[in-house]
């Protein structure tokens, strides 16, 4: 039986997919780059709201989001500055929390912990989205960008429905009690099938074994990204990272697999496939 929650989830996913198709069709790389910027903005905002609660960190949240957007913008404009942008953000984060250390009521260990959490957020929500747009540069017709999205989203959708129907063995109860081993296996199979179909229709000149192996790795990494995002939320005692997508939650909830999968696909294709 289809529940109202499932209908909302499906409708929300359909609208997001339709929007993405329109962006790809009419805007190409520029549209993807701009979309990636807004993905980064929303992801940074969601992370800041989870990690930096309270009036004390109100200004720090703004600095954190600004630094993340600067790191993203530098990296997307100059791809070779990915590492440099993160290093400069690291220095800035430390300076921000050093200035907060003037408040004697705040324990130093809390400030150091918060600084580390912010650095993780800059890398996760600020730098990883860059790879979404970098994928679009790997081929003339966005084939690897489409490959990544279809492999990750097909696996995610299959895991949801297989888990609901046949899920019995819990995968990681402490982190995500609703995820099952059966769902994870179903996700893996779906990702591989979809990956090979994309190869057949869009990437026929690419060696089948390389696409097969990449599909497996992408599925595993994407599912790991989903679990890591769940771990982050639970550590911050939050159910959803946001509310932008009804039935799914926030941007981080929806794109957790992409944020892990995109860097893997980009590095794999750039150094193992294209040479």
What would you note in describing this structure?
It is a single chain. The chain contains nine helices and two strands; from the N terminus they run H-H-H-H-H-H-E-E-H-H-H. The protein has 275 residues and is mainly α. The protein has one domain. The protein has a two-stranded antiparallel sheet. A hairpin with a 3-residue loop joins strand 1 and strand 2 (176-180). The longest helix has 48 residues, at 4-51. The mean pLDDT is 90.
Concise summary:
This protein is mostly helical and 275 residues long.
Low-confidence stretches: none
Number of helices: 9
Helix content: over 70%
- Shape call: globular
The percent range for strand residues is under 5%
Please identify the structural class as seen in this structure. Answer: mainly alpha
Enumerate the strands of the largest sheet in spatial order, edge to edge or round the barrel: 1-2
| Count of structural domains | 1
Write the layout of secondary structure elements.
Elements: H1 4-51, H2 58-77, H3 82-100, H4 108-127, H5 130-136, H6 143-166, E1 170-172, E2 176-180, H7 181-202, H8 208-235, H9 251-273
Keywords:
two-stranded antiparallel sheet, 9 helices, mainly alpha, 275 residues
């Amino acid at each position: 039986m289809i529940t109202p929650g499932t209908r909302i989830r499906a409708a929300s996913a359909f609208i997001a997919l339709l929007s993405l198709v329109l962006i790809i069709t009419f805007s190409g790389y520029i549209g993807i780059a701009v979309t990636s910027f807004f993905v980064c903005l929303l992801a940074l905002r969601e992370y800041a709201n989870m990690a930096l609660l309270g009036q004390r960190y109100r200004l720090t949240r703004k600095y954190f989001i600004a630094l993340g957007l600067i790191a993203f913008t530098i990296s997307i404009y100059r791809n070779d500055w990915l590492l440099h942008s993160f290093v400069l953000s690291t220095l800035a984060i430390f300076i921000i929390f050093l200035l907060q250390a003037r408040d004697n009521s705040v324990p130093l260990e809390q400030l150091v912990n918060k600084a580390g959490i912010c650095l993780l957020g800059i890398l996760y929500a600020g730098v990883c989205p860059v790879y979404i747009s970098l994928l679009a540069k790997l081929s003339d017709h966005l084939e690897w960008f489409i490959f990544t999205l279809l492999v990750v989203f097909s696996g995610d959708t299959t895991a949801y429905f297989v888990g609901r129907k046949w899920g019995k063995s819990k995968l990681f109860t402490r982190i995500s009690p609703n995820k099952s081993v059966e769902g994870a296996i179903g996700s893996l199979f779906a990702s591989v099938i979809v990956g090979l179909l994309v190869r057949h229709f869009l990437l026929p000149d690419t060696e089948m074994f390389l696409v097969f192996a990449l599909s497996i790795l992408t599925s595993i990494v994407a599912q790991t990204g989903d679990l890591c995002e769940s771990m982050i939320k639970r550590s911050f005692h939050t159910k959803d990272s946001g509310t932008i997508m009804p039935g799914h939650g926030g941007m981080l909830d929806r794109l957790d697999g992409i944020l892990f999968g995109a860097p893997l696909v980009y590095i794999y294709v750039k150094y193992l496939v294209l040479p």
